[in-house]
Amino acid sequence: MRGQVIVALMAVVAGCAPAPAPSTPPAPAPKTSSPHCDHEGLNAALSQRAELQLAPDMKPVSGARICRELGEGERLRARFQVTPDRCYAVLAHALPGVEALELVLWVDVPDDTTSVLRLVADTVLAQDDGLVATIGAGDDCYRFDVVPGWTELVPVVAEVKVVTGAGPVAVAAFDAR
Predict the structure, then answer these.
(1) pTM for the complete prediction?
(2) pLDDT digits (tens, 9 = 90+) for 117-130
(3) CB count, 10 Å around CB of 108?
(4) How many C-beta neighbours within 10 Å does residue 127 have?
(5) 47 CB-near residues (< 8 Å, 6+ apart)
(6) 163 has pLDDT over 80
(7) Which residue has the higher pLDDT, 8 or 131?
(8) What pLDDT is recorded for position 10?
(9) Spatial separation of the C-alpha atoms in residues 116 and 42, rounded to whole Å
(10) 8 A C-beta contact, residue 173 and residue 88
(11) What is the per-residue pLDDT for 7?
(12) How far apart are the C-alpha atoms of 160 and 143, rounded to whole Å?
């Protein structure tokens, strides 16, 4: 209290009034969409498709399941790393409102890298399209074999684009462990 009185006296002496106390708390910052898929319907659909379309040993890749509301022409990207000769699958799914999707898996190598992977940067590794899209379903899993003899982790992007329509869209990556 004493500090407030001193500040108020200093303001009067300086010829200015103290700022009034805020009457309402500041508005919360706008919400940003989570990078993780928290849409119940999409999670259920992806889980059901994974059970039906993927080999039993395929498990979700940590951090590679993302969902968002997208409009026509908008894209959603899940970044993850693949180990050469390991089995992978990617599922893209949409709820009503979206009529067509395009799913592409590509190598994501930074421009400033000196790695031999720079030679295949942005190379489309696999793709599919439709109302739902799948890379590596069943026994035909995806294996990175673009650079013969490569044994290090490879950064990739699974990108899903809404070709027609708008609505909730998800993409999820799976691997065999």
Answers:
(1) 0.75
(2) 888 887 899 999 99
(3) 18
(4) 14
(5) none
(6) yes
(7) 131
(8) 38
(9) 37
(10) yes
(11) 38
(12) 19
Q: CA angle, 32 as apex, 94 and 124 as ends, to 5°?
A: 50
pLDDT per residue as tens digits for the range 25-67? 444 333 334 444 557 888 888 899 999 999 999 999 998 999 9
The domain ranges of the chain are: 31-176
DSSP annotation of 21 reads P
Please state whether beta strands 75-82 and 58-70 pair in parallel, antiparallel, or not at all (unpaired).
unpaired
Token pair 């500041």 is at which residue?
26
Is residue 67 exposed (0-12), middle (13-18) or buried (19+ Cβ within 10 Å)? buried
**Contact (Cβ atoms closer than 8 angstroms) between residue 66 and residue 78:** yes
Burial (Cβ within 10 Å: 0-12, 13-18, ≥19) of residue 84: middle
Query: Measured between alpha carbons, how far is 32 from 34 in angstroms, rounded to an integer?
Result: 6
Query: 133 near 160, Cβ under 8 Å?
Result: yes
> Tokens at residue 65, please?
């399941």
Q: Which residue has the tokens 């673009």?
A: 146
DSSP state string for 48-71: HHHHHHB-TTEEEEEEEEEEEEE-
Question: Using an 8 Å Cβ cutoff, are 160 and 84 in contact?
Answer: no
CATH of domain 31-176: 2.60.120.380
The structure tokens 């329509």 sit at 165
Strand ranges of the sheet holding 124-130, from the earlier edge strand across to the other edge: 75-82, 154-165, 98-107, 124-130
Q: How many CB atoms lie within 10 A of CB 41?
A: 13
